[in-house]
């Protein structure tokens, strides 16, 4: 029970942190797009080697 409570508190802490960072423009739509592109390239690296363009939105 104690483990679940600690995990829940950590999740709330992270979510509030993300919200505050968004409000103060530390996280922007451009940053989210770049992070998404990077994650796609990491997980689909074999497509990158084959010349596939994984950029979101052109």
Describe the 3D structure.
This protein has helices spanning 2-23, 29-43, 45-49. It is an all-alpha fold and 58 residues long. The protein is flat. The model has no long low-confidence stretch (mean pLDDT 91).
Descriptive keywords:
58 residues; mainly alpha
Write the layout of secondary structure elements.
Blueprint: H1 2-23, H2 29-43, H3 45-49
Summary?
With 58 residues, this protein is an all-alpha fold. The chain is built from 3 helices and no strands.
Instruction: Report the sheet with the most strands, covering strand number, pairing sense and barrel closure.
Output: none
Number of strands: 0
Structural class: mainly alpha
Residue share in helices? over 70%
End-to-end separation: 48 Å
**Shape estimate:** flat
Transmembrane segments: 5-23, 35-56
Keywords: Membrane, Transmembrane, Transmembrane helix
């Amino acid at each position: 029970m104690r483990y679940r409570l600690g995990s829940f508190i950590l999740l709330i802490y992270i979510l509030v942190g993300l919200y505050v960072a968004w409000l103060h423009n530390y996280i922007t739509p451009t940053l989210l797009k770049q992070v998404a592109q990077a994650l796609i390239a990491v997980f689909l690296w074999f497509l990158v080697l084959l010349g596939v363009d994984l950029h979101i939105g052109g």
